[in-house]
Amino acid sequence: MNEEHFEELIREMKRVYHPPPEPPRERMWARIEARRRRRRRIWRPVMIAWPAAAVALLLAGIWIGRSSLFDRPSGAPESVAVQSVPTLVSTPLLTRAETLLLVAASGNGEAFARRAAELLQETRVTLDGPATDDEELRDLLEDLELTLIRLVRRPGEPAAPDGRRSRERLLARIRNRIPDHTAIRI
Amino acid sequence: MQRSPVRSCPIPWKQRSREARLEERDLIARVLAGDPSAERAFYDAHVDRIYRLVYRMAGDPDLAEELTQEAFVRAFDRLSSYRGEAALSSWLHRVAVSVTLNRLKKLKRHRAHEVSWEGDLPALDRDGPERIELQRRLRGAIDRLPEILRVVFVMHDIEGYKHREIAAALDVPENTSKARLSRARQALRVSLGFADGTSSVRGET
Predict the structure, then answer these.
(1) B40:A29 CB<8 A
(2) CA B34, B40, B46, B47 torsion-angle sign
(3) Which of A19, A23, A62, A126 has the highest count of CB atoms within 10 angstroms of its CB?
């Protein structure tokens, strides 16, 4: 085998290595438009509601601070944690994802697959929303999306050890991300 | 559907004609103003090249569609942050490559314990069984390249991008692109038994 032979093989890869078909332009465009429309619908209320919520939270914080300055019962919290928009938006989803992943080991049948499919849909909608501004959260949601795709496609299939470990790691990351963790524990 | 005259071509900004730059600026301004026909023109101008590249990297029709869509959605969302340091197509390629590599990294992690992604090879009649076997081995070797090398190899040797285009799309110096191609090809030679891994071959840049 010589260099010329190698070059010839490389040239052949143009037709052999994942040769792309004609791009499905219209289908992709329709989906891009749909995602952007959905994103605008999600964003608008958040954009309007967030400044109002921030002002309300600030006023509440001042009021709580002042009222507790002179009369704070022992053991009462000293501060109020303010969550970011991506965290506020994603917390309900992550809480439900945690619950689903906990039962994934024994989960099979139509009901489980349906729940996983709903969660997958919700994850994708959340990925289209303000969560994408938080890189760590986007990363987590993308991993969740991949895990859910596998659960939807093969709900009853027992996970290989690697798959189980990766699900456990995902679960741990989800728990770390849920503020003031309140979801089901085992 | 009317096609835009602005064509996808990831060439560094300074090397492009004034006319092309003005056209792009106009298109960007219209997209940012929410003009649907400009959005479609932007998409039409770039989608074929982006899809081809993403498909070559992903090797899966559903994934390629999804990643192409993701790249455009992200590009539309972030177009307001485009400062014009590079040509629009270079910037878009950068977004697409970033989306693709991130996703593939995760998929490889997820698929590590699953079946190989290799499917049947598209072979011509003139390809004998030995040739097909060699092609299959080379394809597997390309799949196993580290992604930063594979993307350069695919862009240059498979899709025919120039090093200056690759450098602009990956936001690396041109020499880095050349060096990565050389490393990729050397790794492939070693995989196929063409070299022992200690030598490098000239003429790849």
Answers:
(1) yes
(2) positive
(3) A126
Of the candidates B45, B63, B44, the one whose C-alpha atom is nearest the C-alpha of residue B103 is B63
Using a CB-CB distance cutoff of 8 angstroms, which residues of chain A are in contact with residue B76? Answer: 32, 36
- 10 Å CB burial of residue B49 (0-12, 13-18, 19+) is buried
**Is the domain B1-113 a CATH 1.10.630.10 member?**
no
Domain B121-205 maps to which CATH number in 3.40.50.300, 3.30.470.10, 1.10.10.10, 1.10.3210.10? 1.10.10.10
The tens digit of pLDDT for each residue in A45-85 reads: 555 566 676 777 777 777 776 666 555 555 545 544 556 77
Residues of A in contact with B122 (CB under 8 A): 15-16, 19
Please tell me the pTM assigned to this model: 0.63
Q: Residues 103..132 of A with a Cβ closer than 8 Å to B: which?
A: 128, 132
What is the ipTM metric for this complex? 0.79
